[in-house]
């Protein structure tokens, strides 16, 4: 999620930003979604170029209660290939860079899915969260 901080640092220098930035984030519950306030603020700063989609696998209450703003809808379930296809513009695939953050099984899974969609390994950057059980 360090990429979000970088985007904020470029505020006022939008000409150097990618034309389109889309965040897909998934957690069990809304409260576990990271940096919600920062993400919402980033949408306000970059309304034309930044979008985000939240996914929850175990919502508490009805999903309608999760709607935070007009900028984002929550979906129930994990991020899947259809969700990736929805946000990846095939005509722009050569200019695409994907950033994946999460536990190793998840990052490996999405790296594989993106490669199967024709995205080169050099276009995929990832940050693995290592968990130590003790």
From TrEMBL:
Residue ranges annotated for the Oxidoreductase FAD/NAD(P)-binding domain, each copy included: 15-111
GO molecular function: oxidoreductase activity
InterPro entries named in the record: FNR_nucleotide-bd (IPR039261), Oxidoreductase_NAD-binding (IPR052128), OxRdtase_FAD/NAD-bd (IPR001433)
The entry's keywords: NAD, Oxidoreductase
PANTHER family, per the entry: OXIDOREDUCTASE NAD-BINDING DOMAIN-CONTAINING PROTEIN 1 (PTHR46505)
Protein name: Oxidoreductase FAD/NAD(P)-binding domain-containing protein
Organism of provenance: Daphnia pulex (Water flea)
């Amino acid at each position: 999620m360090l990429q979000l901080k970088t985007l904020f640092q470029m505020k006022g220098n939008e000409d150097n930003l990618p034309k389109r930035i889309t965040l897909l984030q998934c957690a069990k519950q809304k409260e576990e979604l990271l940096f919600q306030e920062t993400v919402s603020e980033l949408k306000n700063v970059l309304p034309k170029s930044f979008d985000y989609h939240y996914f929850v696998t175990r919502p508490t209450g009805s999903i309608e209660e999760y709607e935070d703003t007009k900028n984002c809808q929550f979906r129930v379930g994990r991020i899947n290939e259809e969700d990736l296809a929805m946000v990846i513009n095939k005509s722009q695939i050569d200019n695409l860079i994907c950033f994946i953050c999460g536990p190793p099984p998840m990052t490996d899974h999405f790296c594989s899915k993106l490669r199967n969609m024709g995205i080169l390994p050099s276009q995929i950057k990832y940050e693995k969260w290592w968990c130590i059980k003790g």
